[in-house]
Amino acid sequence: MHHSLPTLLALALLVACSPGNGTPSAPPAADSAPQHPADQRPFVVNEITRFDEPWAMSFLPDGRHLLVTQKRGELKLIGLDGTSADITGLPEVAYGGQGGLGDVVLHPDFSRNQLVYLSYAEAGERDTRGAAVARARLTVDGKGGGKLTGLEVIWRQVPKVQGDGHYGHRIAFGPDGYLWISSGERQKFDPAQDMASNLGKILRLNEDGTVPADNPFVDEGPVAAQVWSLGHRNPLGLAFNAQGELWEIEMGPKGGDELNRIERGANYGYPIVSNGDHYDGRPIPDHDTQPQFRAPAISWTPVISPSSLIFYNGERFPAWAGSAFASGLSSQSLVRIAFDGDNAREAERFDMGERIRAVAQGPDGDLYVLEDRRRGRLLRLSPPPAAE
């Protein structure tokens, strides 16, 4: 049973002002982890090519090509030899601020059906915007490029609002074939707790955008029916580990970036609780003041500004098997996260010297990262020759 937002906010105020809560215990935090400057990284960095504000990437089954999105609304087919060609047939995107073309993910049965899923910011009425997810079939032509056909929008943020922040809109397919979408609260705070809105939520859908009959809030209305978890701020990483568990990483406000294990029907507390504070200095009660909300597995203050999340299972870096990697924007880093069951810790951090928008594991087991800027590079991270 879920209380209304006014009730939840009243409870938050009572708890925050109750005796004994003036000095909350320390929040879960990233352990002190080795920091690796550029000249001490355990990998060799090679540039493949450059982009205009890249956002996401997805490898094709041939292992030699990948799709890369650019925020202004372009999709590129990239060869690992640096070749680049355009994919046409994309939806019109609302570019500006944090908005534009976002994630790109292949259907699990892509080799048979050629379906590609894209997230993007979509314009609405009266200068409003919202994230959307569409799917289409990819056809690669003999000239090295290709096109999308049969594009259909299968999900939209509700409601569309004004502003250009916190779309979230990462996409992932789970091992059971369901489609998962992270939806940011669009810098509007309260919708993260409002079950009439799908903002500030993690969503679980069928591959065609319809709602699975066993979702936790399926009886609470058509929008609530999409929701798997709530109380999120700006979730920009979404990934499954080898055990089939879903993990999410999100930007906190002023402090308090979070790594969360996502569980059915769980409420992660934003904006009622956070291990960060508002940018104007107003405090937000910490998670440990209200244990009914799920606390993060790791909380970062100072923030890392996480932008994507993967789990590594390749053979090129055997010491990293089972680790997660988060790309960092303001931290200009690649953060390795180690796990012991549901417990997580920052294991080490690699200085990349630029804002990192995305990290992916290639079919070859190397890591690939996208820099977040004009002329942002696609980099391949490989073991040093002596380590191979």
UniProtKB/TrEMBL annotation:
Q: Which UniProt keywords apply?
A: Signal
Give the range the annotation lists for the signal sequence. Answer: 1-22
Q: Which SUPFAM superfamilies match?
A: Soluble quinoprotein glucose dehydrogenase (SSF50952)
Family annotation (Gene3D superfamilies): TolB, C-terminal domain
Entry annotated with the keyword Signal: yes
Q: Tell me where in this chain the Glucose/Sorbosone dehydrogenase domain is found.
A: 51-380
Superkingdom of this protein's organism: Bacteria
Protein name, UniProt field? PQQ-dependent sugar dehydrogenase
Lineage at the top is: Bacteria, Pseudomonadati, Pseudomonadota, Gammaproteobacteria, Lysobacterales
